[in-house]
Design a protein that fits this description.
45% helix, two-stranded antiparallel ribbon, globular, alpha/beta, 9 helices
Length: 224
């Protein structure tokens, strides 16, 4: 199976140490024995901090995005180092490079690609570009909720949701650099047109990524 895994930078760098990188590397090594793996890493808090500095300088949102992209590539490099020799030793900057690097049978790890594309969007476009069978979106919560579960105790999680309904849920989200939550509109559009199975789950436990391949977990996005 060809799988694209997107991992939020806030998950990998929650404690600013190597432990989560190593934990993910252990799980991904297990998956690598049976599957072809592509990984997209987000920027997390470091990206948001840098973006805030640049925005205070009065720069455009595109410049803010550019800075955020650079941070995602640093995070991707850290995970690549944790994976050691099973990862391709360069970070692709576009989808064609990612596909070319995968021809070596190594795991491809990348960050962002261009302004206005979140990690979620990059993962979905990459999945479509390489013909993936599954996208696993590792976030900081258990799945997709009707509202932010960190703010509302009565938030309800969806076990399954259509791409159309998901678009309605996120339609009010901001699109500024560093403000994407859960999954963005571009990612949903790509999921809808490609029909690629997509699961949103809690990535704080890397083992959940392994579970998503064979059992129900988190929120399944359908295109029906």
């Amino acid at each position: 199976m060809r799988i694209v895994i997107t991992i939020g930078g806030s998950i990998l760098l929650k404690e600013y140490d190597n432990k989560k990188f190593e934990a993910y590397a252990d799980v991904i090594r297990e998956l690598y024995n049976e599957h072809e793996i592509f990984i997209v890493v987000g920027g997390g808090r470091p990206a948001r901090d840098y973006i805030s500095v640049v925005r205070d300088m009065g720069e455009t949102e595109s410049i803010c995005d550019e800075i955020g992209i650079q941070v995602t590539r640093i995070n991707a490099r850290l995970l690549q180092l944790a994976l050691k020799d099973i990862a391709f030793p360069a970070i692709p900057v576009n989808f064609q490079q990612a596909l070319e690097y995968s021809a070596t049978n190594k795991i491809v790890v990348m960050g962002g690609t261009e302004p206005a594309h979140s990690t979620d969007a990059v993962g979905s476009i990459l999945a479509e570009f390489v013909g993936a069978d599954l996208v696993i979106n590792a976030t900081s919560v258990d799945g997709l909720y009707d509202k932010d579960p960190n703010k509302y105790d009565d938030a309800v999680m969806f076990d399954e949701v259509t791409a159309d309904n998901l678009m309605e849920i996120v339609s009010g989200n901001e699109t500024k650099a560093g403000t994407y939550e859960f999954i963005d509109k571009t990612a949903i559009e790509i999921i809808k047109r490609s029909g690629i199975k997509t699961v949103i789950l809690n990535g704080n436990n890397p083992e959940n990524v392994k579970k998503a391949i064979n059992e129900p977990i988190g929120t399944l996005i359908t295109t029906d």
